[in-house]
Structures are given as structure tokens and as C-alpha cells.
Amino acid sequence: MIYPLLILNILLLVCGQTLWKIGLKNKTLAFTFDSIMNLIFNPYILCGVLLYGVATLIWLYILSKSDLSLVYPLQSLCYVLALFVSIFILNESVPTNRWIGVGFIILGSFFIGIK
User: Fold this and answer.
1) Where's the EamA domain (predicted)?
2) Which of 5, 8, 31, 92 could form a disulfide with 86 if both were Cys (CB 3.0 to 4.6 A apart)?
3) Contact present, 45 and 91 (Cβ < 8 Å)
4) % of residues, the chain, pLDDT over 70
């Protein structure tokens, strides 16, 4: 039961980050009241915060049922999914060194997940 919840948690976190990135597109952040209010009430930012809230509740449940030394490293698969989201949704280019890093994350997650 923990692995499906962990996958859901990863999906929610990456979706939240993606919404934040979209919400910040073409925005200039300034520490003024108006800028902060516009940021807070941006629908993409709000949806991202909501997804992060749900992900946090799921994460608390996961932590109550599993070893941190198992689930926390597996959550690094967020970085792998985020790389693909960056390419296919945000149209970012990904250099070779990031692909190599993601390969190490996948390999490490595999070894951690082995019983």
C-alpha cells in the first residue's frame, strides 16, 4: 500500500512544482505588497499550494507506516519525473550532465527499493 501512495505523492509534488513554474512565467518578483498579493492569488500558485498540502498529508501517512531511510530516498524520483515534465510541458532543454545525474538517481532508487 505504501508504494502506490509514494507514487501519488511524487506525482502531486511534481505537479505542484510545475504549476508554480507556470504561474511564475513572465512574472517579476518584487517584495512589494502588490507583487506578493498577485503571487499569492495567482490560480496556478494556489493550485500548486493545494497539491503540496495534499502531498504533505499523504507523506505524513507514509512516514507513519514506513522507514524514513526507505521512502525518503525513493522520493528522489521526483527529480526524474520533473526532468520529463521540464522537457515535454515546459519545453526546457536538458544537458547531458543532468541526464547522467537522473540515471544515478534511478539506479540508487532501484538499489534502495530492493528488499
Assistant:
1) 36-112
2) 92
3) no
4) 99
**Whole-structure pTM value:** 0.89
Is residue 20 within 8 Å of 44, Cβ to Cβ? yes
Q: What angle do CA 51, 4, 82 make, to 5 degrees?
A: 50
How many CB atoms lie under 10 A from the CB of residue 57? 11
> What is the count of structural domains for the chain?
1
Domain that holds residue 66: 2-113
Given this model, what pLDDT does residue 31 score?
Answer: 83
Among the listed residues 90, 100, 105, the one whose alpha carbon sits nearest the alpha carbon of residue 22: 90
Which residues have C-beta within 8 Å of that of residue 78, sequence separation ≥ 6?
Answer: 10, 13, 14
Q: What DSSP line would sit under 51-113, residue for residue?
A: HHHHHHHHHHHHHHHS-HHHHHHHTTHHHHHHHHHHHHTS-----HHHHHHHHHHHHHHHHHH
CA angle (73 as vertex; 91, 93 as ends), nearest 5: 15
